[in-house]
Structures are given as C-alpha cells and as structure tokens.
What does this fold into?
Amino acid sequence: GQQVMQIPQYQHVQEGEDFTTYCNSSTTLSNIQWYKQRPGGHPVFLIQLVKSGEVKKQKRLTFQFGEAKKNSSLHITATQTTDVGTYFCAGRGTGGFKTIFGAGTRLFVKA
Amino acid sequence: NAGVTQTPKFQVLKTGQSMTLQCAQDMNHNSMYWYRQDPGMGLRLIYYSASEGTTDKGEVPNGYNVSRLNKREFSLRLESAAPSQTSVYFCASSEPGQRDYEQYFGPGTRLTVT
It folds into this structure.
C-alpha cells in the first residue's frame, strides 16, 4: 500500500538557523498537504501542493512538490521559537480517497 | 463555529472495558475521519466516512468500530480495550472541493488503557 516517509524524525536548531524536512512517497501523489502540530495541540493545515514542481511560500516557509509528484519538502528560513512543533506531510494517492500522513518531524528551537 | 469537537478529553480504561469516543463538526462537511497518534508514528487512519451513510477501514481498524450517526457526528467505539490502544485519538473532517480535502482536526482524546 501507499507509504509516506518523512525525515528527519527530530531536528534541534539554534534560533535563526534554517530548517528543512523531507517527505517521500512510495507512489505518485495527486496532492500533498502540510500540517503543523504544536506541543499538546492538534494538527493544523498549512498548505496544499497539487502541481508537479510547484513551489509555494508563506512568509519564512517554502514548500516544494517534486517533479515526479513523489516527494516534497518544507523549508523554514531563520527559525523562531514560535516555529516549534511537529510538521507533518500528508499525501493522497492518485485515484484514492485516503490521505496518508508521514511520521512527522519534530522541530526544537533554542533561543 | 466550534469546528470539530471531541468528548471526552481524557479517559482511563481498564483492559476489557468498552467506551465510545464522540466527535461532531458544525462545518457541514461530508467527510469525517478517526486517527490515532502514537509517539514516532505520526497519525494513522483508523476509519473514515466519505459521506453520510458510508464508512470504510483505514490503516489500523482492528479493535475499533465506527458509526456515522448523521452528517455532523462520527463516533469511534472500543468494544474491549487493550493496552495497545493507549494513544491520542483525533477526529477530523473535510469537504471535497473546498481546498481539496484540507482536514480540520478536533482537540483530541487522550486514552490510557491499564
């Protein structure tokens, strides 16, 4: 079945450093979504990518969808303490209904 | 709008006990989901309901049953709880066509089975 792998599992950064998390699917995706979960909270939708090679930006966050629509990345420039939490990618396969979540990358930011 | 609500927030069960987790959404969404979240394993889909009157198994359905009571409510039942079901349970809803399946999550139920 469809699998979505996400790396790294954890990342510790100093405030102001950049951060990237990567997501890889075993099958071609129709779209990929990114969610953020603050400690003790619930996942909150950040963005969705649909097109091959798509790049979207939200302030310091840059999201990319690979040309083959099997991988994606989230890059945060100049991290802040408010960026702490776990970032999940979630992919939906072509012709499928279910969205499969990656295991998430937990980001720690030291002030 | 309350969004997605879940009850209870916390629950402790003994092995073999049963319970039902309740979920309701007020966004008129057609699709609803139940996930469990365990450390290092992300969110795993237990069951989903694409629309009122339909339910389907997700990745980890064993030991659970669901009921889509109406368009607003989707409940998850543990018939005979086991320690392996200790987890955080999230309900979510989405509406195909609106930002294409963006999911809105409830606050979660933290379940401990002893």
